[in-house]
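Task 17 of the worksheet. Students: predict the tertiary structure of the chain below and write it out as structure tokens. Keep your answer in the requested format; marks are given for formatting as well as content.
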Amino acid sequence: MIRFLSLLLALLAPIAAVADVLPSGGNNVRVELIAESAAPAPGKPVTLAIVLTPKPGWHTYWSNPGEAGFAPKATWTGATAGSLRFPVPVTLLVSGLMNYVYEAPATLLVDVTGATGPVSVKLNYLVCTTEICVPESAEASVALHPGDGAPDPAVAARFAAARAALPVPLAGAHYALDKGRFALGVPVADPAGVTAAYFFPAADGAVDYSSPQVVSVAGKLLRIETKADPKARGSIDGVLRIERGGKAEGFALSASPGSVPAAGAAGKRDGTATVFATALLLAIAGGVILNIMPCVFPILSLKALSLAKGGSSPADARRDALAYAAGVIVVCTGLGALILGLRAAGTQVGWAFQLQDPRVIAGLLLLTTAIALNLAGLFELGNFGGGQSLASKPGAAGSFWTGALAAFVATPCTGPFMAGALGAALVLPPAAGLLVFAGLGLGLALPFIAIGFVPALRRRLPKPGAWMATFRSILSIPMFLTALALAWVLGRQAGVGGMTLGIGGAMLIGLALWWYGSRQRAFVSGWPPLLAAAVAAVAAVALVVPQTSTATTVDAPAGLAAAKFSEPALAALTAVHTPAFVYFTADWCLTCKVNERGAIASSDVAAAFKRGGVKTLVGDWTNGDPVLGRFIEAHNRAGVPLYLFYHRDGRVEVLPQVLTVATLTGLAV
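Model answer:
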């Protein structure tokens, strides 16, 4: 219907407007007909070339014009002609409609037989600018006579160039459909060297034309994923255009239904082990770095300093270290198993998915408030105040639950190395994926394992003394700041009402813990008021509901003039070769917010992007979005942050998770 309306508008364009743009010859495209041999051998075919040269600013169409336009149609006289063979086209997005076009001269080849004299062609075609379309026709002829079929040296170079522009046949392509997505796997040589790619379907009923095509590598395959057309089925023909080494190549393929590996998946024989080993090492490194996050460092510090108090034998230290590590690994692996299970059931989730529910944020607000008040000395829970009675248990049990608590409160954080590791975990076999999540837990536990197993490190810990009480109070500051940040996130997710419920619950917990602490100092026992306050606080958390957002604007630095991310918006920019900085964020993602208040907000970056014509698109994953989730996963990531830069030449660059001003300004050239 869209194509029909576009053609109707073209045909009904005002005559005066058409007359203004027509040259003296009447056409906006020069049409030539050239023969490879003027003397074809009797009974043998001869190749002819139709050369279409549009005026500057005009374009002609491929065999499948896309969402608008129509392909050239040829009517022959004097010979029997085969099908037209088209060179590889380019994309052009006009008013949200994807077109497959030629903006430069294009040569169509055709084989004809039975020519004994002049051969003529009448060509009907559509030629357009970005503002107007004109249906035109042209006639051309070439004189032929029987002979030996020898090629004409004068046109040999033109025919060689025309054949080089045709797509090369390529076998072995398969496609898969899943939840409205179309994934194409093509066995091209050196897929990792491909800098840009696009699949042009030969006919309707394959893909949604205007949706962006996400390119990745899956083992030895080049993988192209986009939105599927609801009618997609059977074999799908088309042309794949790729760019590598600064050159464009085209392949004609017929893709049959089959299995297409997930983005980032490695080859069956040797790639999986390499991807797994790399992901595991990155996960361990990322886990180690998580220990310096403001919500984890106080827990690790106090657990480590508990060893400095003395009284623990080396065996007890090793036991506590292993129990702490077990708690961390169990929680990380459990979260990983839940993610993989939900994804297998068809739910689009990633790392820290639970934080997309404001009730979880409210629960974390209560927990971090309790931890902060404990660190500040308001009340005591045994030898370690983790804000949870289980963590206060002595011995291995307390260490286990302390580790579990540390892992749980670390989920809002994503540090360097984690993105690639967790992204790989989602596409590896389930057992290997779970081991990667366990590796993250191992990395998070490694510092305490080292302290527990290396006596020299324990001896380097400060000697116990009164300073430890002061240090413990200081450690409450990052926990209070974490609680404040969670209250802000809760307001963003659930509105002022939800934030009020969360803060009210935290206030109830605070009052109850103050009462409990005063009873402790008076050496008086009693739990009922504390339990009643805890029940009331949990009830307040249960009443928190997500706030439905219909905002079309984004919260981004003003200097960037950022727009809300959508696949059509991205396609519109890439189709006209506009450089774009695309980033995905969430309010509960600490790394995201640090980058957004730092490098991304820099006036130098804004100025560089303005000079370079760089547009910015922002995807907000705070409350979860299946469309964003699929897009993030297609770039081998398990969650946010994700930073992408689309260059003018079509290259897509995945940026590091920790951004600098120099990194961003260096892109806008």
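Marker's comment: Residues 195 and 651 are 5 Å apart (CA to CA). Confidence is low (pLDDT under 50) at residues 4-25, 265-271, 382-389.
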